[in-house]
Design a protein that fits this description.
Structural class: mainly alpha
Strand order of the largest sheet: 1-2
Largest sheet: 2 strands, antiparallel
Number of strands: 4
Distance between the termini: 52 Å
Helix content: 55-70%
Order of helices and strands: HHEEHEEH
Length: about 140
C-alpha cells in the first residue's frame, strides 16, 4: 500500500468521524445509525475513531473505489487488446499456413528429374536446368 493511499484512507476515516456533543437531538441508536464512525480521542496528534469493522471497511473501500474502478477498466481494456492480438496472430498464422501450403504445391509441380538433371515441368517449356528458375526463386526467397 502506498503512503498516498494510506493517507487517503486515513483522511477519509478522519473526515467520517462524527464528534457528537450530545445535543444533536437523536437518541443513542438513531445517533449510532446516522454516524457509524465516531470521534474517540486525539492521541499523539492522531485522531482515534470508534466504529464497527464494517463501517470502517465501508469508508476505506469508498475512498479507493474510484481507483479500483479505473484499474478494473484498465484490466478490461488490456484483456480486450490481448484477445484482439491473439486473434490477429491466429489470422496471420492461418495466412502463413496457407502461403506455405501454396509454396509446397508449387514445389510439388516442379520435380527434379534426377536422371536428366532438370525440372520435369519446366523442361516442357524449354527450361532444361536444375534447379529451374521457379525453384531457384523459391530457394532464394527462403534464404532471405
Amino acid at each position: 500500500m502506498t503512503d498516498d493511499l494510506r493517507q487517503r484512507i486515513a483522511d477519509a476515516l478522519t473526515a467520517s468521524a462524527y464528534q457528537c456533543d450530545g445535543k444533536c437531538g437523536l437518541g443513542e441508536r438513531a445517533c449510532y445509525d446516522a454516524h457509524p464512525i465516531t470521534w474517540s480521542a486525539m492521541a499523539g496528534g492522531t485522531t482515534h475513531v470508534d466504529g464497527s469493522v464494517t463501517a470502517i471497511a465501508n469508508i476505506a473501500f469508498a475512498s479507493v473505489q474510484a481507483d479500483l474502478d479505473r484499474l478494473n477498466q484498465t484490466i478490461d481494456y488490456l484483456k480486450r487488446n490481448i484477445r484482439r492480438s491473439r486473434d490477429q496472430v491466429d489470422s496471420y498464422d492461418e495466412e502463413l499456413t496457407g502461403a506455405n501450403s501454396a509454396l509446397d504445391r508449387v514445389r510439388a509441380l516442379h520435380q527434379h528429374n534426377e536422371d536428366a538433371d532438370y525440372c520435369d515441368l519446366c523442361s516442357n517449356h524449354g527450361d532444361i536446368t536444375w534447379p529451374c528458375s521457379t525453384i531457384a526463386a523459391l530457394d532464394r526467397a527462403k534464404e532471405a
